[in-house]
């Protein structure tokens, strides 16, 4: 079997996550830099991108001004009726 065929193929990675989480962005960016990885994140919701009520905190929260930076790596946000 020709081992070279495997060296030329990208590894496809999909990360399924409930919503964008700021502390994971550096991990996403690093994975996306690799020419050997086709990386995409699928978000169930975009709630954390703006001001919203957080049930666990019991109050309204908003991003701290540091952009999550969705551009730069593949991502998709599920439709509200999905």
Give the SSE layout.
Blueprint: H1 4-8, E1 11-17, H2 25-33, E2 37-43, E3 52-54, E4 59-61, E5 74-77
Parallel strand pairs: 1-2, 2-5
Antiparallel strand pairs: 3-4
Give a structural overview.
The protein is of the alpha/beta class and 82 residues long. It has one domain (12-77). The protein contains two helices and five strands; from the N terminus they run αβαββββ. The protein is elongated. The model has no long low-confidence stretch (mean pLDDT 75).
Keywords:
two-stranded antiparallel ribbon, 82 residues, 2 helices
Short description:
With 82 residues, the chain is α/β, with parallel strands linked by helices.
The dominant shape is: elongated
Sheet-strand content, in percent, reads 25-35%
Q: Label the structural class.
A: alpha/beta
The gyration radius over C-alpha positions equals 16 Å
Count of domains: 1
Give the total of beta strands.
5
Average of the residue pLDDT scores:
75
Element-level helix/strand string: HEHEEEE
N- to C-terminal distance: 43 Å
What topology, given as strand order, has the largest sheet?
1-2-5
Helix proportion range: 10-25%
As residue ranges, the low-confidence spans are none
Largest sheet: 3 strands, parallel
Number of helices: 2
